[in-house]
TrEMBL record:
SUPFAM superfamilies assigned to the protein according to its UniProt record, in alphabetical order: YWTD domain (SSF63825)
CDD domains linked to this entry: NHL
Keywords, sorted A to Z: Glycoprotein, Signal
Organism: Rotaria magnacalcarata
Domain of life of the native organism: Eukaryota
Record's protein name: NHL repeat containing protein
PANTHER family given in the database record: PEPTIDYL-GLYCINE ALPHA-AMIDATING MONOOXYGENASE
């Protein structure tokens, strides 16, 4: 459990990339999500729509049961699975014809996918292609039953779905079976005040239901405790930059079991 008033070092340590944008194994190019020298585990065969290729992948997660990667292949409008076993040379399509952006998976292996084209989030059993609507689906808008630019997702232990809405400048919580969401962060016009977000992206929710969100345009990571009407800046928030205390378009984020915060710092390629 992370205390609600926990503090993080204001100086980060680069754990991947940071050697300029590029395709070498010690480089990253506009990283969007978090999961030294790296190893290519999916794609790496140029941009394209072949089963051995990816096109602007936007999110990835690990399916532990099958030891595979599930990837939002955004540019190809599909969700694909790549085995992590040796000798894997191509993926398989799980869901096609979907403007996928973000992914999440629960302990029952239900897959959640945000669809920016339909302004909705759906839940899928593995192997299912239609899914069940769990958020949005009522057209683009600002209503509590609508989404506008859904990106990253988080699913908590109660199967509530948290959704970052890029163009509504808010994070919504949709409880299981709900027909409308609850604003849990932002929801004002875009801005840099502690009550505002500007382009929310990656999410993490801890066991106290404290929300952590990458606030892309404000180059910061925010913390919102449950029920709070404003957040706290925990890292970044300076001007966009490449210093160890700066971020430049933070996207995905995660927190490990020790409370260490990991941020995909897109424009710094790290």
């Amino acid at each position: 459990t992370i205390p609600a008033n926990a503090n993080w070092s204001q100086n980060g340590v680069t754990v991947a990339g940071g050697n300029g944008g590029g395709g070498a194994t010690n480089q990253l190019f506009y990283p969007l999500q978090c999961t030294t020298n790296g190893q290519v585990v999916a794609g790496g065969n140029g941009q394209g729509n072949g089963l051995n290729q990816l096109n602007q992948p936007s999110d990835v997660l690990i399916d532990k049961e099958t030891d595979s990667l599930i990837i939002c292949d955004d540019g190809n409008q599909r969700v694909v699975r790549w085995s992590r076993g040796s000798g894997t040379t191509q993926g398989e399509i799980l869901i096609g014809s979907i403007a996928c952006v973000g992914l999440a998976i629960d302990e029952q292996r239900y897959l959640y996918v945000s669809n920016g084209g339909n302004q909705e989030v759906r839940r899928y059993q593995m192997g299912e292609t239609n899914g069940t609507l769990v958020a949005g689906g009522n057209g683009q808008g600002t209503g509590l039953n609508q989404l506008n630019g859904p990106t990253y997702l988080f699913v908590d232990q109660d199967h509530s779905v948290y959704v970052s809405e890029y163009w509504n400048f808010r994070v919504m919580k949709w409880e299981k079976g709900a027909t409308a969401g609850i604003v849990v962060a932002g929801g004002q016009v875009q801005g840099s005040a502690l009550t505002q977000l500007w382009g929310p992206q990656g999410l993490f929710v801890d066991t106290l239901r404290t929300l952590y969100v990458a606030d892309e345009e404000n180059c910061r990571v925010m913390r919102w405790t449950q029920g709070a009407n404003q957040g706290t800046e925990i890292v970044g928030g300076n001007i966009a930059g490449a210093g160890v205390n700066e971020l430049n378009r933070p996207m995905g984020l995660s927190i490990d079991r020790y409370g260490n915060l990991y941020v995909a710092d897109a424009c710094n390629n790290r």
